[in-house]
Amino acid sequence: MPQISVDYSERLADSFDRRAFGLALNRLAVELIDARPESCKVRFRRVEEPVVGVDADTYALVFVQFQIFPGRSPEAKAALSEAVLAELPAHLGDRSAPVDAAVDIKDIDRDCYRGTVLAP
């Protein structure tokens, strides 16, 4: 844990260094919420037609969601959110539009979550 999802606008596809950002997200999770490095998993999803506000052509979008086991303080979660937003611009590259960025951190129900590695 954590499971990390990053939704991003299609218009960022060519300039967004997703691999480097994913590695940075894993590092931040280890540093700020005591995640184990090998348990950090990041998935990127390209969003074809995001609409932000009333002008769909102005903004690009990046939305990062962390799903973590409970037990982290609100202060640790807030520090993680702030660090993610601070890290993001370094990975966006050149862009012609402003980026609406947000981070959400959710606790997973530890009693119901299951995960495994499936061997070949």
UniProtKB/TrEMBL annotation:
Transmembrane segments: none annotated. It comes from the Bacteria. This is 5-carboxymethyl-2-hydroxymuconate Delta-isomerase. The lineage of its organism: Bacteria, Bacillati, Actinomycetota, Actinomycetes, Kitasatosporales.
